[in-house]
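Sample pair:
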Amino acid sequence: MSSIKKLPILIFARMNSKRLKGKMLMKIGKKSLIFHIIDRVKKIKNKKNIILATSNKKSDDNLVKEARKKKIKIFRGNLNNVVNRAIDCCEKYNLDSFVRICGDRVFLDYKEVDNAIKKFTQSKKKIDIASNLFEGKIPSGKTIEIISCSALKKIYKKKLTSFDLEHLTTYFYKNKNQFKILKLKKPSLFKNLSYSYAIDTVNDYKRIQYIYDKLKNLSVKNNRQILAATKKWYLKKKDRI
Protein backbone atom coordinates (compact mmCIF):
# COMPACT_ATOMS: atom_id res chain seq x y z
CA MET A 1 0.00 0.00 0.00
CA SER A 2 1.26 3.50 -0.81
CA SER A 3 2.39 5.73 2.02
CA ILE A 4 0.20 8.46 3.50
CA LYS A 5 0.97 11.94 2.19
CA LYS A 6 0.37 14.92 4.40
CA LEU A 7 -2.03 17.58 3.14
CA PRO A 8 -2.29 21.31 3.85
CA ILE A 9 -5.26 22.49 5.91
CA LEU A 10 -7.01 25.64 4.70
CA ILE A 11 -9.21 27.42 7.24
CA PHE A 12 -11.69 29.67 5.42
CA ALA A 13 -12.82 32.46 7.71
CA ARG A 14 -13.78 36.12 7.64
CA MET A 15 -15.14 38.69 10.07
CA ASN A 16 -18.14 39.95 8.10
CA SER A 17 -20.18 36.76 8.31
CA LYS A 18 -23.73 37.62 7.30
CA ARG A 19 -25.35 35.54 10.05
CA LEU A 20 -22.98 36.24 12.97
CA LYS A 21 -20.72 39.17 12.24
CA GLY A 22 -17.33 39.13 13.96
CA LYS A 23 -17.77 35.56 15.21
CA MET A 24 -14.15 34.53 14.56
CA LEU A 25 -12.93 36.75 17.40
CA MET A 26 -15.80 36.04 19.78
CA LYS A 27 -14.57 34.56 23.04
CA ILE A 28 -15.43 31.03 24.10
CA GLY A 29 -14.06 30.89 27.60
CA LYS A 30 -10.81 32.85 27.44
CA LYS A 31 -9.97 32.01 23.82
CA SER A 32 -11.29 33.36 20.53
CA LEU A 33 -13.21 31.08 18.20
CA ILE A 34 -10.34 31.08 15.69
CA PHE A 35 -7.96 29.91 18.44
CA HIS A 36 -10.25 27.00 19.33
CA ILE A 37 -10.46 25.96 15.68
CA ILE A 38 -6.70 26.22 15.12
CA ASP A 39 -6.00 24.23 18.31
CA ARG A 40 -8.28 21.45 17.09
CA VAL A 41 -6.78 21.53 13.58
CA LYS A 42 -3.31 21.18 15.10
CA LYS A 43 -4.34 17.74 16.37
CA ILE A 44 -4.62 16.47 12.77
CA LYS A 45 -1.54 14.24 12.41
CA ASN A 46 -1.47 14.07 8.62
CA LYS A 47 -1.38 17.84 8.06
CA LYS A 48 1.36 19.47 6.03
CA ASN A 49 0.72 22.99 7.29
CA ILE A 50 -2.13 25.25 8.34
CA ILE A 51 -3.17 28.26 6.28
CA LEU A 52 -5.81 30.83 7.18
CA ALA A 53 -7.49 31.81 3.89
CA THR A 54 -9.24 35.08 4.60
CA SER A 55 -10.05 38.26 2.71
CA ASN A 56 -7.81 41.18 1.81
CA LYS A 57 -10.31 43.63 3.32
CA LYS A 58 -9.52 45.84 6.31
CA SER A 59 -12.36 44.13 8.19
CA ASP A 60 -10.16 41.01 8.47
CA ASP A 61 -6.99 42.75 9.70
CA ASN A 62 -7.68 41.87 13.33
CA LEU A 63 -8.46 38.26 12.42
CA VAL A 64 -5.07 38.00 10.71
CA LYS A 65 -3.33 39.53 13.74
CA GLU A 66 -5.02 37.01 16.01
CA ALA A 67 -4.20 34.02 13.77
CA ARG A 68 -0.54 35.03 13.48
CA LYS A 69 -0.20 34.45 17.22
CA LYS A 70 -0.66 30.75 16.48
CA LYS A 71 2.28 30.78 14.02
CA ILE A 72 0.24 29.62 11.02
CA LYS A 73 0.47 30.74 7.40
CA ILE A 74 -1.83 33.46 6.08
CA PHE A 75 -3.38 34.04 2.68
CA ARG A 76 -5.55 37.03 1.86
CA GLY A 77 -7.73 37.16 -1.23
CA ASN A 78 -11.17 37.95 -2.61
CA LEU A 79 -13.85 38.52 0.05
CA ASN A 80 -16.93 36.99 -1.58
CA ASN A 81 -15.39 34.98 -4.42
CA VAL A 82 -14.12 32.13 -2.27
CA VAL A 83 -13.41 29.90 -5.28
CA ASN A 84 -11.00 32.54 -6.58
CA ARG A 85 -9.51 32.95 -3.10
CA ALA A 86 -8.89 29.22 -2.86
CA ILE A 87 -7.31 29.00 -6.31
CA ASP A 88 -5.03 31.97 -5.64
CA CYS A 89 -4.02 30.41 -2.32
CA CYS A 90 -3.22 27.11 -4.05
CA GLU A 91 -1.07 28.93 -6.60
CA LYS A 92 0.79 30.98 -3.99
CA TYR A 93 1.67 27.93 -1.88
CA ASN A 94 1.96 25.50 -4.82
CA LEU A 95 -0.78 23.20 -3.52
CA ASP A 96 -2.19 20.19 -5.40
CA SER A 97 -5.05 19.65 -2.94
CA PHE A 98 -6.14 20.67 0.53
CA VAL A 99 -8.47 19.92 3.43
CA ARG A 100 -11.17 22.56 3.69
CA ILE A 101 -12.09 23.74 7.19
CA CYS A 102 -14.82 26.35 7.54
CA GLY A 103 -14.63 29.02 10.22
CA ASP A 104 -17.51 27.48 12.16
CA ARG A 105 -15.95 24.01 12.72
CA VAL A 106 -15.19 24.32 16.41
CA PHE A 107 -15.95 20.59 16.82
CA LEU A 108 -14.19 19.25 13.73
CA ASP A 109 -13.35 15.56 14.01
CA TYR A 110 -9.55 15.56 13.64
CA LYS A 111 -9.33 11.76 13.74
CA GLU A 112 -11.78 11.44 10.87
CA VAL A 113 -9.86 14.12 8.97
CA ASP A 114 -6.75 11.97 9.37
CA ASN A 115 -8.66 8.96 8.03
CA ALA A 116 -9.94 11.03 5.11
CA ILE A 117 -6.42 12.22 4.23
CA LYS A 118 -5.23 8.62 4.33
CA LYS A 119 -7.96 7.46 1.93
CA PHE A 120 -7.49 10.45 -0.37
CA THR A 121 -3.71 10.20 -0.67
CA GLN A 122 -3.67 6.41 -0.99
CA SER A 123 -6.32 6.29 -3.71
CA LYS A 124 -5.03 4.76 -6.93
CA LYS A 125 -7.33 7.07 -8.87
CA LYS A 126 -7.05 10.84 -9.05
CA ILE A 127 -9.78 12.36 -6.87
CA ASP A 128 -11.41 15.74 -7.47
CA ILE A 129 -13.24 15.91 -4.16
CA ALA A 130 -13.60 13.69 -1.10
CA SER A 131 -16.54 14.38 1.19
CA ASN A 132 -18.77 12.76 3.79
CA LEU A 133 -21.78 14.64 2.35
CA PHE A 134 -22.13 12.36 -0.66
CA GLU A 135 -23.63 9.62 1.54
CA GLY A 136 -26.55 11.82 2.63
CA LYS A 137 -27.35 14.60 5.08
CA ILE A 138 -25.24 15.06 8.22
CA PRO A 139 -25.46 17.59 11.09
CA SER A 140 -24.16 21.09 10.40
CA GLY A 141 -20.53 21.48 11.45
CA LYS A 142 -19.51 17.85 10.83
CA THR A 143 -18.58 18.07 7.13
CA ILE A 144 -15.18 16.84 5.98
CA GLU A 145 -13.95 17.85 2.52
CA ILE A 146 -10.70 17.42 0.62
CA ILE A 147 -10.51 19.28 -2.69
CA SER A 148 -8.21 19.07 -5.69
CA CYS A 149 -6.91 22.44 -6.83
CA SER A 150 -7.12 21.36 -10.48
CA ALA A 151 -10.82 20.55 -9.99
CA LEU A 152 -11.39 24.04 -8.55
CA LYS A 153 -9.78 25.56 -11.63
CA LYS A 154 -12.03 23.38 -13.75
CA ILE A 155 -15.24 24.64 -12.13
CA TYR A 156 -14.03 28.25 -12.21
CA LYS A 157 -14.30 28.11 -15.99
CA LYS A 158 -18.02 27.31 -15.65
CA LYS A 159 -20.80 29.86 -15.35
CA LEU A 160 -20.97 29.92 -11.57
CA THR A 161 -23.63 31.76 -9.60
CA SER A 162 -22.64 34.23 -6.90
CA PHE A 163 -23.76 31.58 -4.38
CA ASP A 164 -21.44 28.98 -5.96
CA LEU A 165 -18.54 31.42 -5.90
CA GLU A 166 -19.07 32.21 -2.23
CA HIS A 167 -19.62 28.66 -1.00
CA LEU A 168 -16.74 26.89 -2.78
CA THR A 169 -18.06 23.31 -3.04
CA THR A 170 -21.75 23.69 -3.95
CA TYR A 171 -21.03 23.24 -7.66
CA PHE A 172 -19.43 19.84 -6.94
CA TYR A 173 -22.53 18.58 -5.16
CA LYS A 174 -24.92 19.90 -7.80
CA ASN A 175 -22.86 18.39 -10.66
CA LYS A 176 -21.26 15.35 -9.06
CA ASN A 177 -21.38 13.31 -12.29
CA GLN A 178 -18.73 15.62 -13.73
CA PHE A 179 -16.14 14.75 -11.09
CA LYS A 180 -14.08 11.90 -9.67
CA ILE A 181 -15.51 11.54 -6.17
CA LEU A 182 -14.37 9.78 -3.02
CA LYS A 183 -17.30 9.14 -0.71
CA LEU A 184 -16.29 9.34 2.94
CA LYS A 185 -18.35 7.68 5.67
CA LYS A 186 -20.96 9.74 7.48
CA PRO A 187 -20.19 10.50 11.15
CA SER A 188 -21.12 7.37 13.13
CA LEU A 189 -22.09 9.11 16.39
CA PHE A 190 -23.61 12.32 15.04
CA LYS A 191 -26.86 11.07 13.52
CA ASN A 192 -29.43 13.51 14.89
CA LEU A 193 -29.90 16.07 12.10
CA SER A 194 -31.70 18.48 14.42
CA TYR A 195 -28.43 18.99 16.34
CA SER A 196 -25.93 21.55 15.08
CA TYR A 197 -22.20 21.59 15.76
CA ALA A 198 -21.49 24.79 13.83
CA ILE A 199 -21.56 28.37 15.03
CA ASP A 200 -23.55 30.66 12.72
CA THR A 201 -26.08 32.39 14.98
CA VAL A 202 -26.32 33.97 18.42
CA ASN A 203 -28.09 30.84 19.65
CA ASP A 204 -25.24 28.71 18.29
CA TYR A 205 -22.81 30.89 20.24
CA LYS A 206 -24.81 30.36 23.43
CA ARG A 207 -24.76 26.60 22.80
CA ILE A 208 -20.99 26.55 22.31
CA GLN A 209 -20.53 28.57 25.51
CA TYR A 210 -22.73 26.08 27.37
CA ILE A 211 -20.72 23.13 26.04
CA TYR A 212 -17.47 24.91 26.91
CA ASP A 213 -18.67 25.42 30.48
CA LYS A 214 -19.33 21.67 30.67
CA LEU A 215 -16.13 20.46 28.97
CA LYS A 216 -13.64 23.33 29.33
CA ASN A 217 -10.71 22.54 26.96
CA LEU A 218 -12.59 21.94 23.71
CA SER A 219 -9.52 21.06 21.65
CA VAL A 220 -8.95 17.75 23.44
CA LYS A 221 -12.53 16.56 23.91
CA ASN A 222 -13.60 13.46 22.01
CA ASN A 223 -16.79 12.82 20.04
CA ARG A 224 -18.67 11.12 22.86
CA GLN A 225 -17.99 14.00 25.25
CA ILE A 226 -19.08 16.55 22.65
CA LEU A 227 -22.23 14.60 21.80
CA ALA A 228 -23.18 14.17 25.49
CA ALA A 229 -22.82 17.90 26.19
CA THR A 230 -24.75 18.77 23.02
CA LYS A 231 -27.62 16.47 24.05
CA LYS A 232 -27.79 18.22 27.41
CA TRP A 233 -28.05 21.60 25.70
CA TYR A 234 -30.91 20.54 23.46
CA LEU A 235 -32.75 18.85 26.33
CA LYS A 236 -32.34 21.99 28.40
CA LYS A 237 -33.57 24.09 25.48
CA LYS A 238 -36.64 21.87 25.11
CA ASP A 239 -37.43 22.30 28.81
CA ARG A 240 -37.36 26.09 28.37
CA ILE A 241 -39.97 26.00 25.58
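The CA atoms of residues 25 and 233 lie 23 Å apart.
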